[in-house]
Amino acid sequence: MRLIVGTLAAVGIALASPVVAQAQAGISVGMQVTDAAGGTVGTVTAIQGDNIRVKTDKHDALLPKSSFTVANGKLLFGMTQAQLDAEIEKSLAAANSAIVAGATVNGTGGAKVGKIDSIAEGKVTITLEDGKKIAVPQEGLRGNPDGTVTIGYTAAQLEALVQNSGSSGGAASTDTSGN
Question: What sign does the dihedral 95-101-103-109 (CA atoms) show?
Answer without folding.
Answer: positive
